[in-house]
Amino acid sequence: MNLRLPSKVLEHIISFIDSNEDRNSVSLVCKSWFETERKTRKRVFVGNCYAITPAAVARRFPEMRSLTLKGKPHFADYNLVPDGWGGYAWPWIEAMAKKSPSLEEIRLKRMVVTDECLELIAASFKDFKVLVLTSCEGFSTDGIAAIAATCRNLRVLELRECIVEDLGGDWLSYFPETSTSLVSLDFSCLDSEVKLSDLERLVSRSPDLKSLKLNPAVTVDGLESLLRRAPQLTELGTGSFSAELKPEAFSKLSEAFTNCKQLKCLSGLWDVLPEYLPALYSVCPGLTSLNLSYATVRMPDLVELLRRCSKLQKLWVMDLIEDKGLETVASCCKELRELRVFPSVPDLDATNVALTEQGLVFVSQGCPKLESVLYFCVQFTNAALITIARNRPNIKCFRLCVIEPFAPDYKTNEPLDKGFKAIAERCKYLQRLSVSGLLTDKAFKYIAKHAKKVRMLSVAFAGDSDLMLHHLLSGCESLKKLEIRDCPFGDTALLENASKLETMRSLWLSSCFVSFGACKLLSQKMPRLNVEVIDEHPPETRPESSPVERIYIYRTVAGPRLDMPEFVWTIHKNPEIGVSHLAIK
Amino acid sequence: MSTSFEKMDEFVNLKETELRLGLPGTDNVCEEREKVSCCNKRALPSEIESSTRKSETSPPRKGQIVGWPPVRSYRKNNIQTKKNESDNEGQGIYVKVSMDGAPYLRKIDLSCYKGYSELLKALEMMFKFCVGEYSERQGYEGSDFVPTYEDKDGDWMLIGDVPWEMFVRTCKRLRIMKGSEAKGLGCVV
């Protein structure tokens, strides 16, 4: 029986499918489904901006309204990718400006965005609504001003942890004088002061504003004034609190918070003095998300705050919370889904803080909905990992950073193999995993055997040999992103498992023992991969067997990059001609 | 149990047919294992079964591993400045280090080092070069590389010329100069 649906019917059915993964599956069924799907996809996600050309994307999805792009590899966050590597937004903006002028939303992560990009966005997309830049760099507040001034229907403008050339606070005054359609504004990463009066007036004429994240330059007085004008906020990022506490200021602030009856998410809190925390008590019972990871407040004050947050689902905090504080979280925050504990001293000389593996064990016992963990801790034990795994088989994201490289189970002196085995075995829905501490090849055998749903895996200072990489590449069925640093394997496993790499988005290897020769071989064998050798010293001048510093391998249908800097080598580079550059603007 | 051993054997035998470069009979992969990372001082695979996992060489020097612990710079910088403001222990004196010819900048924490020799050793390991012999009169001799720093007044000085504490207080950033420019600096008496 040949079922052929009229295309209008098919279109209607497919329009209900939101998930891009499902849409990707739909598009593989047959040509007519492919055609129908592509004509109805409005939200396009490109996980690696070099995997496909902008023109191809624009061609395939004529109804695109929202574009999300990611640029640099994840380890760029930790300074492992040299400046100038790439990830330029310009070619994408330029192409979309011409071919997809109805684009309304652009979300970029780890990309280089210039003022020219922002100006082109402002000029080209008539109904532009959403701009979210995460961990981006290369632009100044002038570019932001262009967006503010020109995009009359702008709803969302969020700069998340970007490196911005801050030329002053004038950009804020460029928003339209009459009412704005702003729903969300996040300028928390900007340094310089914005005129409070500009901010007050903006907030007053933005009736739809629901999310406001201020920068540290906004003071307590400023915060209070803004809250009075926007009691409807559901998300707030405060300014800083470093001013001395004045009783009148405190009571005004308290009152302002009390009037914010819809506040669900609270962040910022830079330098918050413990004396200010009681002003927040009134919003605590309603909070679902609390980011205290920049608050250098100590345990007793933290606990007073946290025990009032019974609806909390997401908590980001520093290790100043200590085990005791986490014990309180475990007993009071029964709705907790996500916990992140950051180091208060982010280097190897970790201060002697009373945060140990026990803190995470408490939370795993007390919080039945816990599914996402990021935990920095000086050392750990297998027993703790096994307990956590037993308590919380529903964990989907488990990122443990044992700060001391090669640290074994400090009670038994064994590797942490058994502990991570338990995590892999019991957490059947695990999608993201970061391992650390002393690990042998065995740990990776276990992970490969059990962690069948893991899509992203991060490894550092672990393993003994090529076996570890062989296990991961031959065993982890759902693996899409693998990033490894400082592990002692060579060429064998990589070459043996070359075909696996086409099923993944990307593989990052740094400070391992993979040779230049292997990179060349891999490139020759696998034409649909870009094998980038990122090395300070041009590898062509060294013996083929010498290991290279960093390798970034990703599947692509776009062919070789045209914007590679000197220190990136691929097999396509012609040394006589030199580096070919796209106009980067 | 036996299947895993069989698999191990299979895998080990792959070496015979593996794609390699170089003349048959040579095993150049093992010979030229330069340690590209100062921290990866691990025992070779033959010691998989050893019970004590202490590596032979000393553990990585604190404060020197790039990008570890994996905390975003944005976060590091925001906590760092707060710490400097609140407690004046001088904890975390981060300065940028550049080397002529290298496309990267590194950042180091001067408070991690107790003196010039520790600092220079760290720089040597980080950028893989050697400083020459230092003498007050002649500066650094015997190497193309000269470690210099920019002080609060914007002057470029030779590392080692002033007492350590003064250096830590006044240093804004470091630069490892190369070649002729370096010579000029080294000869100033």
From TrEMBL, chain A:
UniProt-recorded name of the protein: GRR1-like protein 1
Record InterPro entries: COI1_F-box, F-box_dom, Leu-rich_rpt_Cys-con_subtyp, LRR_dom_sf, Transp_inhibit
Cell location: Nucleus
F-box domain sequence ranges: 5-46
CDD domains membership: F-box_AtTIR1-like (cd22159)
Species classification: Eukaryota, Viridiplantae, Streptophyta, Embryophyta, Tracheophyta
GO term, biological process aspect, one: pollen maturation
GO terms for cellular component: nucleus
Main location: nucleus
Pathway(s) this gene product operates in, as recorded in its UniProt entry: Protein modification; protein ubiquitination
Record bears the keyword Translocase: no
Gene Ontology molecular function: auxin binding
Key words, A-Z: Auxin signaling pathway, Developmental protein, Nucleus, Ubl conjugation pathway
TrEMBL record, chain B:
Domain of life: Eukaryota
Domain spans labelled PB1: 92-179
Subcellular location per the Swiss-Prot or TrEMBL entry: Nucleus
Pfam families: AUX_IAA (PF02309)
Chief location bin: nucleus
Any one of the GO BP annotations: auxin-activated signaling pathway
GO cellular component, one term: nucleus
Transcription is among the record's keywords: yes
PROSITE patterns assigned: PB1
Database matches in InterPro entries: AUX/IAA_dom (IPR033389), AUX_IAA (IPR003311), PB1-like (IPR053793)
Record's keyword terms, sorted: Auxin signaling pathway, Nucleus, Repressor, Transcription, Transcription regulation
Start and end residues of each stretch annotated as Disordered: 48-67
Function text: Aux/IAA proteins are short-lived transcriptional factors that function as repressors of early auxin response genes at low auxin concentrations.
Protein family per UniProt: Belongs to the Aux/IAA family.
Subunit structure: Homodimers and heterodimers.
Protein name: Auxin-responsive protein
Naturally occurring in which organism (per UniProt): Cardamine amara subsp. amara
